[in-house]
Amino acid sequence: xxxxxxxxxxxxxxxxxxxxxxxxxxxxxxxxxxxxxxxxxxxxxxxxxxxxxxxxxxxxxxxxxxxxxxxxxxxxxxxxxxxxxx
Length: 86
Prior knowledge:
- By secondary structure, this protein is an all-alpha fold.
- Helix content is 60%, strand content 0%.
């Protein structure tokens, strides 16, 4: 799900991930957590059109990746990702 063009992350998704999710968690776990915070949880997620579900997942991944990159920059200032690491 590499997305070369950054998408605008919903502020609510951003807040949930920033507040509740640790940078070491997997993308799947982060997405599940965000979905669980929706009004009726998974039922609301399933009622969304497929394109909106995909967008929500992409937003979760993008925000979590940004948090992970920020963590690495602060904790390991000399860190350089490998060529195959995204």
